[in-house]
Amino acid sequence: MADKKPLKSGSPFATRIDPTKESLSKEQMHFIKQVELEQWKKKTSKLRTRNVVTGLAIGALVLGICILNVNWKERIMDEIDEEAKRARLQGPKTGAN
């Protein structure tokens, strides 16, 4: 990599212009719109990919929480059923039960 020299300030390459203030030809305006469209497409494809990945991650998290919640409830219900079974097997302690 050679020495990096800053561009000359008078260089017409990649200088910012305001199309509303400067008089540009139709070809120049068309070219500007084409470049802007290509940049927009590039940005949106990256953003779309990022959004899909984020959506899948959130969906996986929600699904995992739901599955854990169902398993936790089943485990608690099994424990309650076993306690009820044990209580029935022990029989009534008094005549009132």
TrEMBL record:
Subcellular localization, as worded in the UniProt entry: Mitochondrion membrane
Pfam family of the protein (one): Coa3_cc
Transmembrane keyword on record: yes
Membrane topology: Single-pass membrane protein
Regions crossing the membrane: 52-72
InterPro entries referenced in this protein's UniProt entry, alphabetically: Coa3, Coa3_CC
Annotated source species: Xenoophorus captivus
Keyword Transmembrane attached: yes
The protein's role, per its UniProt record: Required for assembly of cytochrome c oxidase (complex IV).
Protein family: Belongs to the COA3 family.
Subunit structure and binding partners: Component of 250-400 kDa complexes called cytochrome oxidase assembly intermediates or COA complexes.
Region called Disordered, residue ranges: 1-22
Start and end residues of each Cytochrome c oxidase assembly factor 3 mitochondrial coiled-coil domain: 39-83
Name used for this protein in its record: Cytochrome c oxidase assembly factor 3
